[in-house]
Amino acid sequence: MSDWSNEFGGESLLAQDAWERQEARANFRTEVWTTKDGRRIDIKDMEDSHLFNAYKHSQDRLLFREMVLRLFEDKLRSNK
Known about the structure:
Elements: H1 3-8, H2 10-24, E1 32-34, E2 40-42, H3 48-58, H4 61-78
Antiparallel strand pairs: 1-2
Helix pairs in contact: 3-4
């Protein structure tokens, strides 16, 4: 083990694990949301109202990321 690993111990492993999880879900818009009645919808195809309501009930980070992305896309389009 390197001196760096010795100095930071398990914290560096936790950071590495978090980074890998983030990388694995970097393309979150391809994720599928399953509705309470069993329908499957790509997150990117959800209507804004459905996206917001699903987030309010689930607090799912992927839904939050999609909402933020849409807000910034709209903001950038309106500034042109």
